[in-house]
Specification:
Oligomer: single chain
Number of helices: 17
Membrane topology: Multi-pass membrane protein
Order of helices and strands: EHHHHHHHHHHHHHHHHHE
Largest sheet: 2 strands, parallel
Strand content: under 5%
Subcellular location: Membrane
Shape: globular
InterPro entries: MFS (IPR011701), MFS_dom (IPR020846), MFS_trans_sf (IPR036259)
Number of strands: 2
Protein name: Major facilitator superfamily (MFS) profile domain-containing protein
CATH topology: Growth Hormone, Chain: A
Strand order of the largest sheet: 1-2
Structural class: mainly alpha
Number of domains: 1
Helix content: over 70%
Pfam family, one: MFS_1
CATH class: Mainly Alpha
Length: 490
């Protein structure tokens, strides 16, 4: 191999001769680690330990963040709309939109802090902060107060999802990631579905303590968030390279060593590297991370569109408040097995693009049925397709990017950028789902359809690029991601 050839994805100097040689030496060393049946069994036990400690608590905390972010919709159909005069102009859309302003700008700074402070401290701090904010939303008196609530909520929620993705991706091999993110997200979806039922029960507290029912949605869910934040402080685990340094290890030294050997052999970036301004600039100059960010944005347009406006669309079909809550929960529950099945086969087949494109096409059909079908039953079936497609696409989009970049600092920056563009998708949805078109939202549905078509085209383009680069690497013309033997995932 000619080491002087330029490597692809040289985000922080990994393509120079010395670092490539180090990567090759490291790979050779890991290949010497015997993987007999007993070692494989031991490794499976280690991964299961990580699964149990990492996924449930992060999933629960992210689940409550999703509920806290979207409970404004549940409060709306429970009476907040009239009490705070959100029925005037585009006030409700403005409140939704402004959340994403602060959400966008604090993604990357949060991931830069995460490594310094530690996942348990930082993620639990964020959860406690937005929990207090949501609790306070139960006592606001004017629609403008909700603007301040949404801005603060965006600030504190901004760093949570990219932090979780960065932490999860650091613990698993490349083709173990999507299943774990799917399970992490499935917990969120389960809570979101039952969050509507919880909201229905909380509305029945109307008048208790002198508060309207919609206020109790914010108060109780804010308290739940604060409790989970405290649990997170004690349960969230550190990055694997820091685990034994902090005195809170749940794995032995031998188990960490075995895990390290597998991760080094898989991608060669077990040890963390410091995030510097140069690395930040180099990562942001990589056009591929912007495509992955746009894919996440397009997925978010659909997921936020359904999250914020599905209940209004369903209520507009002629159902009462109780029926609307129940009918809103069902499509979310159905999307859970879809997400898990897609995650399993995507990891098993070691491909991402076909699943991302497939879910996007499902979303196109869903949007079209909701927008243009006449019978309510057909429109409601379209909701199932749209929700299932958009929610199952999230783990696939995240895993696809994670598979195709190397380096801890690069992952931290790229995952934050990707999730930040989810905020752009939220703004897009908030603007295109116009209040004056409620409850049909034809413009928003058309706009959502366009984003799903873009996802399909982007998948085709990126797959072609990855195929070309992999062929060049096989001919010895380039070194991908500064590591001999590394190949892009299609």
């Amino acid at each position: 191999m000619a080491f002087e050839k330029t490597s692809q994805g040289d985000s922080d100097g990994m393509g120079d001769i010395e670092q490539v040689e180090k990567a090759q030496i490291g790979l050779a060393e890991e290949e010497d680690v015997p993987m007999d049946a007993e070692t494989k069994k031991k490794l499976r036990r280690i991964v299961l330990k990580v699964d149990i400690r990492l996924i449930p608590i992060l999933g629960a905390m992210y689940a409550i963040s999703g509920i806290d972010r979207s409970n404004i919709t549940a409060a709306r159909i429970a009476g907040m709309h009239e009490d705070l005069r959100f029925d005037i102009g585009n006030r409700f859309s403005i409140a939704l939109l402004l959340f994403f302003v602060t959400y966008f700008f604090f993604e990357i700074p949060s991931n830069m802090i995460l490594r310094r402070v530690g996942p348990a401290r930082w993620l639990s701090f964020l959860a406690m902060s937005w929990g207090v904010v949501i609790l306070g939303a139960g006592f606001i008196q004017k629609w403008t107060d909700m603007i301040a609530i949404r801005l603060l909520l965006g600030t504190f929620e901004a760093g949570f999802l990219p932090g979780c993705i960065y932490l999860i991706s650091s613990w698993y091999e490349r083709y173990q990631i999507q299943q774990r993110i799917a399970w992490f997200y499935a917990i969120n979806l389960t809570a979101s579905a039952f969050g509507n039922l919880l909201a229905l029960g909380l509305v029945e507290m109307e008048g208790l303590g002198g508060l309207e029912g919609w206020r109790w949605i914010f108060v109780i869910e804010g308290i739940i968030t604060c409790v989970l934040a405290i649990l997170g402080f004690f349960l969230v685990i550190d990055f694997p390279d820091n685990l034994l340094k902090k005195g809170r290890a749940f794995l032995t030294h031998d188990e960490v060593a075995l895990l390290k050997s597998r991760l080094e052999r898989d991608r060669g970036d077990f040890e963390a590297d410091e995030i510097t301004m140069r690395k930040l600039f180099n990562t942001l100059c990589r056009w591929q991370v912007w495509i992955y960010a746009l894919l996440f944005m397009c997925m978010s347009v659909a997921s936020y569109g359904y999250s914020y406006f599905m209940s209004v669309i369903i209520q507009g079909m002629g159902y009462n408040v109780t029926q609307t809550y129940l009918l809103t929960a069902a499509p979310i529950l159905v999307s859970i097995p879809i997400s898990l099945i897609v995650g399993y086969f995507s990891d098993r087949l070691q491909v991402r693009a076909p699943f991302v494109a497939g879910m996007a096409l499902t979303g196109v059909v869903g949007f079209a049925l909701v927008a243009f079908a006449q019978p309510n039953g057909v429109r409601y079936f379209g909701v199932y397709l749209g929700v299932g497609g958009s929610y199952a696409a999230l783990p696939a989009c995240v895993a696809w990017q994670s598979n195709n970049i190397r380096g801890q600092s690069t992952k931290a920056i790229a995952s934050a950028l990707q999730v930040a563009f989810g905020a752009v998708g939220g703004v897009y949805a908030s603007v295109t789902f116009m209040e004056k078109e409620s409850p049909t939202y034809v413009t928003g549905l058309w706009a959502g359809m366009a984003t799903q078509i873009f996802m399909v085209l982007a998948c085709i383009g990126m797959t072609w690029f990855h195929w070309v680069q992999n062929k060049k690497a096989e001919r010895g013309e380039i070194i991908i991601e500064g590591r001999e033997g590394f190949r892009y995932t299609y």
